[in-house]
From TrEMBL:
Protein name: Uncharacterized protein
UniProt feature, compositional bias: Polar residues: 1-10
Region (Disordered): 1-23
């Protein structure tokens, strides 16, 4: 292995995937990475506001270890703004 990742793995006693006799299980992987693993999801909610029906688009991240939920982005779009902004669109 002539890569930085390869050198790092070799220095920590981890053989290349092709050479490993016993690949780890999902349980082992999750236990090893639980502190830095997060679930990311995206949803929308419609609510009546002063300007009419408004759609709120919400991106949220849940840290699995602490169960803390973060909201890195919230976007809203009212009925009257539908043609102005296509922040979310189907491909």
């Amino acid at each position: 292995m002539d890569t930085t990742v390869g050198n790092n793995m070799k220095a920590n006693g981890i053989e290349p995937a092709r050479s490993r006799k016993h690949p780890g299980s999902w349980e082992t992987f999750l236990k090893a990475h639980w502190d830095v693993t997060a679930a990311v999801d995206f949803t929308n909610v419609e609510a009546w506001t002063k300007v009419g029906l408004t759609t709120f688009y919400l991106l949220f991240v849940r840290e699995l270890k602490t169960r803390r939920v973060n909201f890195p982005h919230l976007h809203y779009q009212s009925e009257r703004d539908v043609d102005k902004d296509d922040w979310v669109s189907a491909a």
